[in-house]
Design goal:
This protein is of the alpha+beta class. It has five helices and seven strands, in the order H-H-E-E-E-H-E-E-E-E-H-H. The protein has helices spanning about 1-30, 35-40, 90-105, 160-170, 170-175; strands at about 60-65, 70-75, 80-85, 105-115, 125-130, 140-145, 155-160. Strands 1-2-3-7-6-5-4 form a seven-stranded antiparallel beta sheet, with helices on both faces. A hairpin with a 5-residue loop joins strand 6 and strand 7. The model is unreliable at about 30-45 (pLDDT under 50).
Length: about 180
């Protein structure tokens, strides 16, 4: 029995090795140093090409402050994003109610806790991501809201959920906090 197992193992190893060498020889013969044949071998199974999108960048446009601050940014493809620090309530309870009202107007798609800010100002904040009914352009506007404590809260307002999330992940947003 051991002898049969050993013979089968040797045959299987030899077969596997010869198939591997044959495939390598076929690739070498077809490629002839060109990258195109390697791309054909590694092409996706579906007929659609993998979608690669250029990373959006954001630039600061202007800022105004009264009872809080309003900052406007523009993406590399011309879309507008607003970052608002709202401090127009007189108590923490009113601020929480305002956050609840703003999220209640839309459909909350994500809710949880996340760190907000940088350095020593970094605090754990309650985070809401809400999507609102379609506007004239056919997009669903979105807001990402944070409430830390006190009478102020912050939010991003953008024309789409994807745009708001990309702005939140951007370096510009990290520096603004």
């Amino acid at each position: 029995m051991r002898r049969l197992t050993l013979q089968l193992t040797i045959v299987f190893f030899a077969l596997t090795l010869s198939i591997g060498v044959a495939c390598a020889a076929e690739v070498a013969a077809n490629s002839e140093g060109s990258r195109a044949s390697l791309d054909q071998l590694t092409a996706p199974l579906s007929s659609r090409r993998a979608r690669t999108r250029k990373k959006r960048t954001f630039k600061f446009v202007y800022r105004t402050c009264e009872s809080g601050c309003y900052e406007k940014y523009e993406s590399s493809d011309g879309q507008e994003v607003s970052l608002i620090l709202a401090c127009h309530t007189s108590t923490a309870r009113e601020a929480r109610e305002e956050v609840q009202r703003m999220t209640g107007e839309g459909r909350v798609v994500r809710k949880g806790w996340r760190y907000y800010g940088r350095g020593r100002r970094r605090k754990l904040a309650e985070r809401f991501v809400a999507v609102y009914s379609k506007d004239e352009s056919g997009e669903e506007p979105a807001k990402i809201l944070w409430y830390v404590e006190g009478i102020c809260f912050s939010y991003i307002e953008a024309g789409s959920l994807q745009l708001a999330l990309e702005f939140e992940r951007s370096d510009v947003f990290a520096k603004a906090n």
